[in-house]
Design a protein that fits this description.
489 residues; alpha/beta; 5-stranded parallel beta sheet; 13 helices; 29% helix; 17% strand
Length: 489
């Protein structure tokens, strides 16, 4: 069986390792970037780091005891993933600088054909591991193309542009901005931060481990497993507070409010950064340095909506224009446009974007009816607000491997999730959001219709149970096409 994986981030690497460990030898990974890492390759802004502790934000089968701190910086995560790839012999499978433009299913041959523009690849099964946070979003503000200064998105940081002594405008205050704003505030002349929506924050100091702590982690048997088990349950507690915003959620919100008040002695600044929505509705952020950075003399927080971009800077709704030499767009990603801009066509020429016209959906976030032997990793409704994406992707890799093993061992050509199974799965997933904090405001978890397409509505342990075993009865299997009869002369 020939399998093609699209994407060499954590998800694609997890799938390749799982498949190779279970006898699938013909595996190719197509990666658009010149190097592996996915979001950790592209996001190299100052201060880039994970906000999930590293002993959970890593593969269970490739644990490390030499992390430098609780939540690792970007380069350490990237180095870890490269080491795992080399240890498992995956690098030779990767074809770099191969952005897939289209994937088309040929019903006559029961095979997929993928085109990168310069090459084509055939496969009996494909795994799309392109993730949710891979396409930067820049708002279409009037006049943006007329700006006379420099500009770039935080996920495509321009290291050749020196910010020292510049007047810098940062548009957005999400997870990336709270990491790089404290770093650049120290060296710019003036930093203007444009906030559309404030955030709930929790502390994250993230100092380097002292030598004694590092020695204990490295040498005490079982300590790493204990830490991972403790953190698993701790993160499930954060999901608990989001699922029950009127009870447990109030306690977590109180803790967040207490922390934020301690960092904001100025009541006016506190008023402007205070969230007016339920704790957990939007992504909860972790930083002990962002709010103090807003108190610096050279930093201004602007909460007036942006009206337009002028050649000299940013004009807000109150008519004021603040000059800027550089605009940094910290405006997140097009998270609900999964697999785009790749064109995916299944049976009868049906396009995936048409199947998702009313919002992306998939059985367990993995399979979509009408797209045989196609699997998604980090697909619809598999994001987490209180856990580790790596945990989800590792479980998905195991499920996909079981599905493909059943396909191979049964000598079938394709498998396709039953329409009624996927419909029930989708309905149950959406129904579970009722009464949770996720439904109390609009966030990037939702599409333009307000449908939550990014997040899993429950706990990590529940997802584990759902995908632990592949259920053949949920799928339709087709036999291998009969060979064409030879011509009679």
């Amino acid at each position: 069986m020939r399998i093609v994986i699209v994407g060499a981030g954590f998800g694609g690497i997890a799938a390749a390792i799982e498949l190779r460990r279970h006898g699938f030898t013909d595996v190719t990974i197509l990666e658009a970037a010149p190097e592996l890492g996915g979001t950790w390759f592209y996001n190299d802004y100052p201060g880039a780091a994970c906000d999930v502790p590293s002993h959970m934000y890593s593969f269970s089968f490739a644990q490390r005891r030499d992390w430098s701190r609780l939540c690792s910086p970007r380069q350490e995560i990237l180095d870890y993933l490269r080491q795992v790839v080399d240890e498992h012999g995956i690098r030779p499978l990767i074809r770099f600088s191969q952005p897939v433009a289209s994937a088309t299913f040929d019903e006559a041959t029961a095979r997929w054909r993928l085109s990168t523009g310069s090459e084509t690849f055939d496969a009996e099964a494909i795994i799309l591991a392109t993730g949710q946070l891979n396409r930067p979003a820049i708002p279409g503000l009037p006049g943006a193309e007329q700006f006379a200064g420099h500009s770039f998105h935080s996920a495509r940081w321009d290291h050749d542009y020196d910010l020292t002594g510049r007047r810098v405008a940062v548009v957005g205050t999400g997870a990336s901005a709270i990491q790089f704003v404290p770093r650049i505030a120290e060296r710019v002349e003036q930093l203007t931060v444009y906030q559309r929506t404030p955030n709930w924050l929790l502390p994250r100091r993230n100092h380097k481990y002292p030598p004694l702590v590092r020695a204990l982690i490295r040498h005490v048997p079982g300590l790493q497993r204990l830490r991972r088990a403790f953190l698993f349950n701790f993160l499930e507690g954060l999901t608990l507070s989001i699922r029950h915003p009127r009870t447990v959620g109030r306690l977590t919100a109180w803790r967040s409010a207490r922390f934020m008040r301690s960092q904001l002695p100025d009541p006016e600044l506190r008023r402007r950064v205070w969230p007016d929505y339920t704790f957990g509705c939007k992504r909860v952020l972790f930083s002990s340095h962002y709010l103090p950075a807003l108190r610096r003399a050279n930093v201004e927080l602007v909460t007036e909506p942006i009206a337009a971009i002028e050649p000299t800077g940013v004009r807000t709704g109150d008519g004021a224009t603040r000059d800027a030499d550089c605009i940094i767009w910290a405006t997140g990603f097009r998270a609900t446009e999964l697999v785009a801009p790749m064109r995916v066509e299944g049976t009868a020429g049906r396009r995936l974007e048409d199947a998702w016209a009313e919002g992306a959906h998939a059985h367990l976030g993995l399979t979509v009816p009408g797209f045989p032997s196609l699997f998604l990793m980090y697909g619809p409704n598999t994001n987490t607000s209180g856990g580790s994406i790596i945990f989800f992707e590792e479980q998905q890799a195991g499920y996909i491997r079981q599905a493909l093993a059943h396909l191979r061992d049964g000598a079938y050509a394709t498998l396709d999730v039953r329409t009624e199974v996927e419909a029930i799965s989708n309905r149950e997933t959406q129904e579970r959001f009722a009464g949770t904090a996720w439904t109390d405001c609009h966030s990037w978890y939702q599409d333009d219709r307000g449908r939550i397409v990014a997040n899993w509505p429950g706990y990590m342990r529940e997802y584990l149970e759902r995908v632990r075993s592949f259920e053949p009865a949920e799928y339709v299997f087709t036999p291998v096409p009969a060979p064409a009869p030879s011509a009679v002369t």
